[in-house]
Specification:
This protein is of the alpha+beta class and 304 residues long. It is built from eight helices and seven strands. Helices cover 60% and strands 18% of the residues. Helix 6 (215-223) runs antiparallel to helix 7 (227-234) and helix 7 packs parallel to helix 8. Bound molecules: zinc ion. The site of zinc ion has 8 residues, from loops.
Length: 304
Amino acid sequence: MKAMSFPSRQEAVRAWQHLLKVLPVAPDAYAASGRLPLAALALLLAGVPLGALASAIAGTVVLLLTLAVAWPFAWLTGVVMDWWVIPKILPLAVAAIYAAGVIAVGASLGFAASMVIAALGRKGHNRSPATAATLAACAAVLGTGLFAAAVLRFSGSRDEAALMFGGVALAIAGLIALVAAFAGAADSVRTARYCETCHRYLETRDLGSLPLDSATMLRDALLARRLDAVSQVLQQPGDGLQLSLDTCGSCGRAVLDGKVTGEARFPEAGKERRDRRTWRFLSTWLEAADARVVAQVRTDRFGA
Ligand SMILES: [Zn+2]
């Protein structure tokens, strides 16, 4: 990470904008193929009830935690209601904890469902983000239903206002769960890079960092397939462009990624503020021979 100091926030933002123009965001060289092997489909379908169960359990645990945190405040509200100033703040604290709880319950319902689907999909070598996302969303909806049934069963509340509040809270949590499960499961497939020829997941290796001002030189040398120039650039010590290589253990083809990482520091309201940013500037497939050279140069030079 390269740290740079600026006299003000405006100057820092301007510098970021300039850097983004010089080193623009590159699309990911890897794209999931969408292939869905039969074994993966079977595992994913089995993952729907499993994910629903995990989702309901996770939601229940987070709900109990929320109630445990809110309880002392709710109890105090009743005790000091009539004779102190604090009661005005206490109900607000309770409401804030409940609101945070609804979001946390929703996120946990969705996250647990997507974790189960992601793990089973990986086992079956699923390469379809859409299938994983759809089935994780199904698991999250089922899990939210299970969770609601359990809460209704154990709370035993028949109070109309409480049921109404619970219904609204559940609808919000359910929506968060749905979105979280859908996005999480799709992302788990897209980010797990895979060699479609060898049916293997790629292995990630950190190659250290390069100086930022060598970034465009490296990209142009790679695009022109000039390996001698690539090797030259890779010799430079420096900071600001983080390199990593995802390699197939069988055929040796690899994806080389370069991420710009930086931190802008500037004073504001008497304090030093930090604005960290990271984006992908470079992402390209390398043939096995080229990937070997790239890895070798970095190992020889820096022991990466
Ligand atoms: Zn391969």
